[in-house]
Write a structure and sequence with these properties.
The complex is a heterotrimer of chains A (about 475), B (about 375) and C (about 350). Chain A is an alpha+beta fold and about 475 residues long. Chain A contains 15 helices and twelve strands. Helices cover about 45% and strands about 10% of the residues of chain A. Chain B is built from 14 helices and 14 strands. The chains are: A alpha+beta (about 475), B alpha/beta (about 375), C mainly alpha (about 350).
Chain lengths: ~475, ~375, ~350
């Protein structure tokens, strides 16, 4: 950084030629020329005027760094000595003040990004419990976490990722509870990421688990601060990414998908019932279409006679074989699913009618599809959403299982399930097998897996996560 | 090697897709199968005639109900006869749902197993299927219309269901049980003997039958008699009362309506909580078959009118009626044992009992005729 | 460590019995009638003895079997022995793998499936062969409880139709028939060789021996009970009922009303069964790899080669499974005895250091 304002100005204009980078020149009360560089649209100009420009207009001192620093008396004020630091600060939304005769720049924390209100995330709705959700602004998200952990053990370590985007990423954990190895590993992997831009936390999750991409999630996500904090309290490490409302947590265990925050607000019997229902329905939703096809093609005895005769009546005269029929129905469901997410709201209702009536009822009446197949696929479609976080995986699994069932029958389904088990038991992330506590069996952790014991019985943190401090509830 | 994983997965997908879309590797799926509900076996000389009752599902624009059709095939063996059905209909007869086998009169005259052993082989057929024999040909029997169900097989199965056994009126047997008897030491067995009873009036005929101008005769099925078998051949018949008695001694019962005559009045007692005991012992150097049974009885009805006090105290049959029941029940059991001796059908499994208790003792051919027996009956009021 | 005591116990109690529930019951019934449990009992006693011996050996040393052999006879001899075991495990896998055809025909398909369908088994098996031992242990953790519950339910469905008096009188079969059947049934009681190759891969803890032996005992008792129930259900026609497990639950009264729930239980059980069938292939790959001292990247060649060989052989044998079974059982039992019973016990004579 130079002492001359003109030279600093020239350097800044050279480094930041873009038209959205503006500057404002003014003189202090003692005649020192100052210039404020800022990125238009992401600064609070009112605050700049009130807390920066106004005090300096009344300043009568010399062009001295320390004196100017004290004159500004700004909460988030720091000095930068290099052009790069000044450029980074301006690009992050913090204006930088240069004064003639001072060889450093003053970074002013008057960043003001447009942000939405903290609302309930649409993808994680609850009946009982907190409704706050993360937003795109990192500092606000960090604040929400801080509100829930009023302890010095809560640590945030900020990193930057993305050569062009320089996205801020905050690694969040409870010191003394999270495993140090996991924290180090997370930081190492984020730092090692070589990518231009990171528009969303899903990009970061790819770097957290390098290696071949998997059909199954490898990092858990949430948009709710209460869930995020609960996971951190269990010993996990959280990652917040600027610009994304989706927070990440590692290590990931598949059993987390069957746990809902409401399980902790209702009585444990109800919670157990709901968890068993979720997994039962999910397995049915994945395997029922395949079993239906396999039974018709390979093993009719699976179906009771009266039901078989009903099904046989329904499929009389159909042009498609049972496997193709279910495949087509499944594809129609997937198309409806995808279209309903993408379509504008004002055509949503009309197209829903088209989907339900035309593709469902009319296709059956026309003898293209059979009623049992439509009912089955509808049930399967709804059933998969009992665990919405796994929808990407389970919808593909359903399709693959259907293929296998239609090709090889129930033998294929069993072998495919065995293949999945063999694959999943070998998957480990950050030292935690993702199928824990089922494989390997971790006795203590089973208390909060498919069954939910009462809070008083969950004295220890999950062992599968490898937390440094196991006790979370002291005995009375 | 890892770099080939993608290629391997693609190959696998192509391989599976081939199966999925082509789907013709000897598969016989629901669209190519004829679901056989019941099978009848008749014998004519050296040939077997198989009558299969096939379920014909109707599509929804045809009403959606299931009807049936009887298709016959003839061959030197049962397998050949079934293949003939495949040849004439184009459908592969799927026996996995066949729960009824009707043995025609012609088959049981010699060795029923000449036709039955096909079903005992491991070819997908369930040995839980009910067996029944009839007084006509199996084909005629299966083709009979019945008012209780559109499909005669299902109507017959209903008659021979567990409910009938619990009431003591029928003695149903499945292929497994019959086979165990046939191949066991006694070489004996029994099958319900079903008869068609023509319905007296056709008032319940459906509209579409009347519209066609045809009046298909409807029959009800009566399986209260039981045929006795020795070495696969029919050797005797139990009357309905004997069937009832046999069920009390050998099967679980709920309430069995036992008729008792006392001083010219006909009573019906309900037998419950039967505790039969069948055993063998040695008496006077000979094998002795000992039957002992304790039964609780309640008064169900009589042919004369009763006072209200009697009706109110239904569980209490009088001592005299109970004594008559004792006597008559004992007579029935004795008649059963005598029938068993005459026909050589070891109805009570005496050979098995003897083998278990006296394993070193060899039974002669005429062990039933040579054995002694004792019957002890204790009918008590409930 | 790749395995722990719990996983070993699940393997011994939950997986060992599975290969004895298909063709073995009808074979035993054919030769020994109502005393069909006697040969099984003798073989279980023999197996239990060998298993106990291996467990006690593991308490004395933390070396692997290869290390023990190398220390005693040198590396070359150890590699040769492992090569022989590699071939032996492949050979011993043939019978159970082909036997699954019987289960498939009765429980998975209405009609006889094309041999090409079995390719799926070998594809999954190749994948399994490339995984470490830890995978097997964890699969056992997950699948054995499920299959055990399914088996118990299946058993409960069958008991209602069983006439246990058919098992009497006891011990009427001549001793020589029992002895012959015992030797003949040995190909299905080869599980005691597997723990020898787990040596050095699991941490011996206090109580490992009795826990694993107790599990083994429970599994053995279940098989014996199953055999008894099988005969009680079928009586004299039991010899004709191959694939016993898929038929025994058929007679439960509710089955006709709600459909073949016994088949669903069989499918739940079969995951563990197929997994256990893959273990000899895995062991064969490991033994051959040790014999030829190749790197991990080349495991896939062994896995593909072994599975392809067995699959192609199946094309020639799939209509003659029962004859193949007879041939192998009658003529090869000395080989089974040597590799699965004698050598594991003789391992005690190998040079070891105290754990």
């Amino acid at each position: 950084m130079k002492t001359s304002l003109a030279e600093n100005r020239t350097a800044m204009k050279k480094e930041l030629p873009s038209e959205d980078i503006l500057s404002f020149r003014f003189h202090t009360g003692s005649g020192i020329e100052c210039e404020l560089f800022y990125a238009d649209g992401i600064v609070d100009k009112e605050l700049m005027g009130t807390l920066v420009i106004n005090p300096l207009l009344r300043y009568r001192g010399d062009a001295e760094e320390k004196a100017l620093f004290e004159a500004l008396a700004f909460p988030e004020l720091k000095c930068v000595k290099s052009e790069q630091e000044a450029v980074s600060a301006i690009l992050e939304g913090n204006p930088v003040l240069f004064a003639d005769g001072v060889s450093s720049g003053f970074v002013l924390g008057t960043k003001k990004v447009p942000q939405r209100a903290v609302t309930e995330p649409q993808t994680e709705l609850v009946v009982k419990g907190p409704r706050a959700g993360f937003i795109e602004e990192l500092k606000t998200n960090m604040g929400q976490v801080r509100l829930r952990f009023k302890t010095p053990n809560l640590r945030f370590e900020t990193l930057q990722i993305g050569k062009q985007s320089k996205t801020s990423v905050a690694v969040c954990y409870l010191s003394g509870i999270a495993s140090k190895k996991v924290v180090q590993e997370v930081k190492k992997r984020i730092s090692a990421a070589e990518i231009d831009a990171v528009p969303d936390s899903s990009y970061v999750s790819r770097f957290l688990c390098p290696g071949r991409p998997s059909l199954f999630k490898q990092v858990n996500t949430t948009e709710k601060p209460d869930i995020f904090c609960a996971r951190i309290a269990e010993g996990r490490v959280g990652i917040l990414v600027d610009g994304s409302p989706v927070a990440l947590t590692v290590p990931y265990l598949i059993v987390e998908e069957f746990q809902s925050p409401e399980d902790y607000f209702v009585n444990p019997y109800r919670a157990t019932f709901l968890r068993l229902l979720r997994i039962g329905v999910l397995l049915l939703a994945i395997f029922l279409p395949a079993l239906y096809v396999a039974a018709q093609l390979f093993k009719m005895q699976l179906i009771p006679l009266s039901l078989l005769l009903t099904i046989a009546s329904s499929i009389q005269g159909l042009p498609l074989s049972p496997s193709l029929e279910v495949f087509v129905t499944l594809m129609v469901l997937e198309i409806l699913n995808e279209a309903s997410i993408r379509m504008p709201k004002y055509v949503g209702l009309a197209l829903s009618v088209v989907g339900a009536l035309v593709l469902g009822e009319t296709a059956v009446n026309a003898g293209i599809l059979s009623t049992p197949a439509v009912i089955l696929i509808a049930f399967s479609g709804i059933g998969l959403y009992t665990v919405p976080e796994l929808i990407e995986t389970t919808s593909l699994l359903r399709l693959i299982t259907l293929f296998v069932a239609g090709s090889v029958g129930i033998y294929g389904i069993v072998l495919f399930a065995l293949f999945l088990v063999i694959y999943l038991v070998g998957e480990e992330r950050y030292g935690s097998p993702i199928l824990a506590p089922f494989a390997p069996i971790v006795g203590n952790d089973l208390k909060d897996s498919l069954v939910k014991f009462s809070m008083k019985q969950l004295k220890e943190r999950p062992r599968a996560i490898g937390s440094a401090n196991r006790t979370r509830l002291k005995e009375e | 090697m890892r770099k080939f994983t993608g290629s391997v997965l693609i190959l696998l997908f192509v391989f599976l897709s081939g199966f999925f879309f082509v789907n013709d590797f000897g598969l016989i799926d629901i669209q190519k199968s004829a679901i056989v509900l019941g099978v009848g076996i008749d014998r004519a000389g050296e040939n077997f005639t198989i009558t299969a009752q096939l379920a014909i599902p109707q599509s929804s624009d045809q009403g959606g109900k299931t009807s049936s059709v009887e298709v016959s095939g003839t061959g030197k063996t049962v397998g050949e006869a079934l293949t003939a059905i495949n040849a004439t209909t184009g459908w592969y007869p799927k026996l996995t749902f066949c729960n009824l086998i009707v043995l025609g009169e012609s088959l049981v005259k010699d060795d029923a197993y000449a036709g039955l052993d096909y079903f005992l082989r491991d070819n997908g057929f369930s040995d839980n299927a009910t067996l029944v024999t009839c007084t006509t040909s199996a084909k005629e029997f299966l083709s009979a219309g019945t008012p209780t169900h559109d499909i005669s097989t299902l109507a017959i199965e209903k008659v021979l269901s567990r409910e009938g056994m619990l009431s003591g009126v029928v003695a149903p047997v499945n292929l497994k049980e019959f086979s165990i008897g046939y191949y066991g030491s006694s070489r004996s067995g029994y099958l319900p003997l079903a008869e068609k009873l023509e319905q007296e009036n056709g008032a319940s005929q459906s509209d579409d039958q009347l519209q066609g101008g045809e009046e298909k005769t409807k029959f009800l099925f009566d399986a209260t008699k039981t045929a006795l078998f020795y070495k696969g051949k029919k050797v005797g018949t139990m009357s309905p009362e004997q069937t009832l008695t046999y069920n009390v001694l050998s099967s679980p019962i709920r309430v069995v309506a036992f008729p008792v005559e006392h001083k010219g009045i006909s009573y019906t007692l309900g037998f419950r909580h039967a505790k039969p005991s069948l055993s063998v012992s040695m008496r006077e150097g000979k094998l002795s078959f000992d039957v002992s049974v304790e039964v609780r009885a309640l008064m169900l009805d009589s042919d004369a009118s009763n006072s209200f006090e009697n009706i109110a105290r239904s569980s209490e049959a009088s001592r005299a009626i109970i004594d008559s029941a004792n006597e008559q029940f004992t007579e029935k059991i004795v008649s059963l044992i005598e029938l068993s001796r005459e026909s050589k059908c070891d109805l009570f499994g005496v050979a098995d009992l003897a083998q278990k208790k006296f394993p070193k003792r060899k039974l002669g051919e005429e062990y039933l005729k040579e054995m002694l027996y004792s019957v002890k009956v204790d009918v008590k009021a409930l | 460590m790749q395995l722990n005591t719990r996983q070993l116990s699940l393997i011994a109690g939950g997986l060992f019995p599975l290969t004895k529930l298909i063709l073995l019951p009808s074979t035993l019934a054919h030769y020994t009638g109502r005393d069909l449990y006697l040969p099984a009992l003798f073989l279980f006693l023999l197996e239990g003895g060998v298993l106990l011996s291996v467990l006690l050996l593991s308490s004395k040393t933390d070396k692997t079997f290869f290390e023990l052999l190398s220390d005693t006879f040198g590396r070359v001899t150890a590699r040769i022995v492992f090569g022989m075991f590699g071939v032996y495990f492949l050979f011993s896998a043939l019978l159970p793998v082909y036997e699954q055809t019987l289960l498939l025909r009765s429980a998975f398909y209405d009609t006889i499936p094309s041999p090409l369908f079995f390719a799926v088994f070998y594809i999954v098996c190749i994948y399994f062969c490339l995984k470490p031992l830890r995978t097997f242990g964890r699969c056992a953790d997950l699948l054995v409880p499920i299959s055990s519950v399914a088996l118990l339910l299946l058993f409960a469905l069958s008991v209602s139709n069983a006439d246990f008096s058919a098992l009497f009188p006891l011990f009427q079969t001549p001793a020589k028939d029992v002895a012959f059947t015992t030797l003949r049934s040995m190909p299905r009681f080869l599980d005691c060789a597997f723990p020898l190759f787990f040596l050095g891969h699991f941490k011996y803890e206090k109580g490992t021996t009795w826990k694993v032996m107790l599990s083994f005992l429970v599994g053995a008792l279940f098989v014996l009970l199953f055999l008894g129930t099988f005969y009680a259900v079928y009586g004299v026609i039991a010899p004709g009922k191959a694939s016993a497990i898929s038929k025994i639950g058929r007679y439960f009264p509710g089955v006709d009303l709600i459909g073949r729930i016994d088949l669903l239980l069989i499918y739940l059980m079969s995951g563990s069964y197929f997994l256990y069938l893959m273990l000899p292939f895995w062991l064969s790959v490991q033994c051959l790899k040790t014999c030829f001292q190749t790197k991990d990247e080349y495991d896939v060649f062994y896995a593909v080669g072994i599975n392809l060989f067995v699959f192609i052989l199946y094309f020639f044998l799939h209509y003659t499974i029962v004859h193949f079974e007879k041939f192998v059982s009658v003529y090869f039992f000395p080989v089974f005895f040597l590799f699965s019973y004698l050598i594991p016990v003789l391992a005690w004579t190998l040079r070891r250091k105290h754990a």
